[in-house]
Every structure is written in C-alpha cells, then in structure tokens.
Structure prediction request, 84 residues.
Amino acid sequence: MQPHTIQLLKMQDCAAIAQLYDAYGGALYGIVLRIVSSRELAQQVMQDTFLKAWRYGAEYDESKGQLFTWLLNIARNTAIDATR
Prediction:
C-alpha cells in the first residue's frame, strides 16, 4: 500500500478505497466469510465495510493502531451485526 493512502482516505479520495481494497480486501473477506458463513452475505458485509471506511476515514487515528486493524474491527463488527 502506498504511504499516502491514509491522507487520501481522510480527504475521501476514491483512490484510497481502491488501494485499501487491493491491499486488504482478500484478508478481510476471508475473516468476514468465517463469521457470516455465506458468500452473498460476506460480499454485502465487505461493501458495507468499505463504505464505513469511506465515511469515517477522517476519524482514523494512526497513533491508536494500524490501518489494517481499524479496517478489521469495522469488518468484524459489521459481520457480527449482519448475523443478528
């Protein structure tokens, strides 16, 4: 992932989401799929995850943790909510 991705995300630049998806999409999908056990639901959760990342990207604080961990928490929480 390119170093300026976080800056792009905070500015809501479309390139940031593409970079995040390319870098982390596969790993996040695997985790989400284990939680929801349905490919269709996992795809919806992934879409919702990246939409939330887009909406709340300005709130990401690099001093509190890695970008992947932040995305993972969004994906995990979204997946858990989807199973309820």
In short: Helices lie at 5-10, 14-36, 39-56, 67-83. The radius of gyration is 12 Å. The chain has four helices and no strands. The CA atoms of residues 28 and 72 lie 7 Å apart.
